Amino acid sequence: MKWAHQLNPLLDRRTLLSKLSTAFTLAAAAPLFDLTEPNDHERIALVLDDPRRLDDATITYAESVLQGYRRQGDVLGPQITLQTALAQRQVIGRLDAAAPATLQPRVLSVYAELSQIAGWQLFNLGDYRAAQYYYDDARTAAHNAHNVELVTYTLCTMSQLATWQDKPRVGIDHAIAAQAWAGQIDRPYARAYAADVAARAYAADQQADRCRQALDTVRVILTQPPDAQPVSSWWYFLDESFYWGSEGECALRLNQPDDALAAAATSLSLVDPANLHNYAHTLASQGEAHIQRGDSAEASRIIGDVARLTAANRSRRIEQRVVRMRQALEPWQCTKAVRELDDRLSHYRLSIGNDTTNKS
After folding, report:
1. Residues forming a β-bridge with 310
2. Is 53:46 a contact under the CB 8 Å cutoff?
3. Is residue 4 pLDDT above 50, yes or no?
């Protein structure tokens, strides 16, 4: 992923999108397991042949590749990462029964994290029923491992899943549970993400005051991070740009397009372009804010930019946002900007009538 960090986020949007498109094409051809050392291959082969050989070095290796799976999903989309995570999850599941008692909590945590990763990829593919299954599995395994931080993280993603399905009060339930668990450990980022998903759920439920309180908690933690705070690998995406992205999302839910535009602009100026997932969703928020303001020309231009990103990352959720934004432009159907947008959507094989998902 080093190539992505070399991109200059201050480039104008069109130049940046062009460079991202080229970089993602190169990344797609890169070997998936380029993190392994020769000795790792031999050690892992021995463990797979006899799970009783499981040792600290092998489980450390398994832990080390998890963030790579997450970042791969951010860049290349959920399809590739889902298959990898499920295969690794099956392997780790077989190792659990034979793991020494001293290593079992770590094995269970790796298994839980792989289940959560699978759930997240399925969420982005639009298979919400399957995503819920893997999230439940991840939460159970994390509880069995007594990994409170991972329980918190999984509950947060369950909250996000519910809110996305227009079930904000279920999202609030999961967020409150996440906040309760986060309160038991000294992990600021766990508290930040629990507050973040609570804010989104409250905004979706039109509880503006509670949304604001939750966002203030996120802001304090992510814009003024304390020195030397413990940070688990799965919190890599939590930074100031993420906070401003959430500000924008909540403002959209509360019909505050001017605030949403300002927040999205700040987020885009800070976001790591390697995280295509977050970049595309924040750009989509900017487009939605322009629609709420009635600026169809600017919205059309931005929607086309988001659609271009789907050529590299075929996230169903990103595609859904593009489709729904285009549908919201129906009052301006005959304008030049919308006609040009339709040409771009056709080029990227996106149809405004293609918005069916598994929401059960």
Report:
1. none
2. yes
3. no
Query: Is the domain of 162 the same as that of 107?
Result: no
CA 286 to chain centre: 18
Q: Which amino acid is at 205?
A: D
| 189 inside domain | yes
Tokens representing 327 are 């549908």
Cα 143 from Cα 152, distance rounded (Å)? 10
Strand locations in the chain, DSSP E? none
pLDDT band at 76 (very low <50, low <70, confident <90, very high): confident
CA–CA distance, 281 with 260 (Å, rounded to integer): 13
* Residue ranges making up the domain that contains 339: 275-360
Task: Give tens-digit pLDDT for 262-295.
Answer: 999 999 999 987 788 999 999 999 999 999 999 9
Of 259, 343, 329, nearest to 298 by C-alpha is 329
Residue whose C-alpha is closest to residue 300's, from 280, 319, 325, 268? 325
Residue with token string 């030049």: 336
Residues 15 and 136 in one domain: yes
State the pLDDT confidence band at 317, using cuts at 50, 70 and 90. very high
pLDDT band at 31 (very low <50, low <70, confident <90, very high): very low
Distance CA 20, CA 15 (A): 9
* Number of Cβ atoms within 10 Å of the Cβ of 302: 24
Burial 204-215 (b: 16+ CB within 10 A, else e): bbebeeebeebb
